[in-house]
Design goal:
Length: 500
């Protein structure tokens, strides 16, 4: 799931959705259709899901960052499974849907920094970048304002505009500090441990986090984003205690006031070009002469955040769970046989970077001639927390609520989800509301196509985007039941008309 600090919002509903249906009471399904659904549901195996996730989220897969060799291996693993199951390629005659990303890297030799007129600082010894988000040509030479620990009130000084913000390190979220300083019109952030700080040294803590800056950082092309230019680099730098001491040596530190001196830093990119990222698409053609042109999309992102400072972030739940759950759906469709409507299964990349893979596909869909997408079901992080804990969006409080999420609620309840404490706090007896996450996973991009979406999500946990998100902590029966819910929804969406 896309990195963002966002707490769930309480959703008060007047009644449970458990009894809601999409259409008036329908006649019993023909025996052949019921048998097909039962075959499909029986095929979904928690043990097979477990075997797949122990590979997808293994250390050998390196966290499946976009774009890496390990992610390409994951894509070909999925592609081979689709071919084995008899799926048609979902992108013309190809299973892989490629889209371009810009790639550029910093010239390490170009990095310079100095305090006033003092001797230059040495990168990696006196200062460093805490991440790989500062790739761009940049020269910043400005005064410095002391902002304490960088709370929201600490950035309100009128003096901060056009100057660096100096922040004392106390284990804060560096991206929140960056956001606050940017809003205050600062030119950048300097973070350093105060003299009394006794925690892990910052240089040691962040060593290696900047690796992507020098090996080549990828970004979504501005030309593919409505022509809007990429956001300018906003520098954030880590200083050692000694560098901080040198910076403030001639100053009396006062909250919100400028110190006596300046700080300058510059960087230059080298080269540039494009690399191709990959989605994996499998097409299951429909059998009805007319309805086959209406395509139901089921999606999951298969990327994660990669390896940092030599530590693999396995991403077993985020989103190995959705990746393997979608593979279980593929196997179930093989047992079901053709549905009346066509189904497109899409494993997208670049979700953790900003929903890139789904954005690329939704902007330029690859479908058979005459076909059109009519709905999207998206699954992301479905393998942790309580066995009955499951959220979906859009809820009845959301403007896009409709029959698709009614179906999701109905079949989710059948599979044993709902009626859990977090949902009760939202005023719900059934599944919980994931409305606060509506913009945070790939369904958001498919919704921009003007089609109904339904997102299943089992909630965040202590290992979210941490090295502890490993296969041994996954509830495999839970993924099994979410996959069954999705297959039941696909089966129910084969009526003559859709009420979504």
């Amino acid at each position: 799931m896309l990195i963002k600090n966002l707490a769930p919002l309480p959703i008060a509903l007047v009644a449970s959705l458990g009894a809601a249906t999409v259409t008036p009471e329908a006649p019993p399904a023909p025996a052949a259709e019921t048998a097909a659904l039962n075959r499909a549901l029986d095929d979904i195996s928690a043990d097979e899901i477990k075997a797949d996730i122990f590979f997808i989220a293994s250390d050998a897969m390196g966290g499946r960052d976009t774009v890496t060799a390990e992610q390409q291996i994951a894509a070909r693993f999925i592609k081979a499974r689709l071919s084995y199951l008899g799926f048609q390629p979902g992108n013309g005659d190809k299973f892989l849907y490629e889209y371009p990303l810009d790639q550029k890297a910093l010239d390490r030799d170009s990095l310079t920094a100095h305090i006033g007129g003092q001797e230059p600082l040495t990168y990696g010894t006196d200062y460093c970048m805490p991440d790989s988000f500062g790739v761009g040509d940049l020269t910043t030479d400005a005064g410095v304002v002391y902002c304490g620990e960088g709370g929201s009130k600490d950035f309100r000084s009128e003096e901060l505009a056009g100057k660096w913000a100096l922040v004392d390190w106390d284990e804060q979220n560096i991206y929140r500090l960056r956001s606050r300083a940017r809003k205050a019109d600062a030119v950048g952030v300097l973070i350093a441990p105060a003299p009394e700080f006794e925690g892990t040294g910052m240089m040691e803590r962040f060593r290696g986090s900047d690796e992507g800056s020098f090996t080549g950082r990828v970004s979504y092309p501005s030309s593919s984003n409505g022509g809007r230019p990429s956001r300018p680099v906003f520098p954030i730098l880590i200083l050692t205690k000694q560098a901080r001491a040198d910076l403030v040596a001639n100053s009396e530190l006062t909250q919100g006031k400028a110190i006596d001196g300046t700080f300058a830093e510059s960087r230059t990119i080298k080269g540039g070009g494009q690399v191709m990222a990959e989605n994996v698409c499998g097409f299951w053609p429909g059998s009805d002469p007319e309805l086959k042109n209406e395509v139901l999309i089921v999606s999951a992102h298969y990327d994660h955040v990669g390896t940092r400072d030599g530590v693999v972030y396995n991403g077993a739940d985020d989103n190995g769970s959705g990746t393997t759950g979608l593979m279980a759906v593929a196997s179930a469709l093989k047992e079901y046989g053709p549905m009346r409507r066509s189904v497109m299964l899409i494993w997208v990349s670049g979700e953790e970077k900003g929903l890139w893979g789904s954005k690329a596909w939704a902007t330029n869909p690859s479908l058979p001639e005459g076909a059109r997408a009519v709905a999207n079901i998206n699954i992301d992080m479905i393998g942790r927390n309580a066995s009955n804990e499951l959220y979906l969006t859009p809820s009845p409080d959301h403007k896009d609520f409709g029959g698709l999420t009614r179906l999701g609620e109905k079949f989710g309840l059948e599979e044993g989800f709902g009626d859990f404490p977090a949902a009760h706090k939202q005023g719900l007896q059934g599944l919980g509301s994931a409305d606060p996450y509506y913009q945070r996973s790939d369904h958001a991009e498919f919704a921009k196509m003007g089609i109904p979406v339904c997102f299943f999500f089992a909630g965040e946990h202590e290992d979210y985007h941490q090295p502890g998100d490993t296969p041994d902590k996954i509830d495999y029966d839970k993924i099994h039941r979410v996959s069954r819910t999705v297959v039941k929804m696909l089966d129910a969406l084969q009526t003559d008309t859709l009420d979504l």
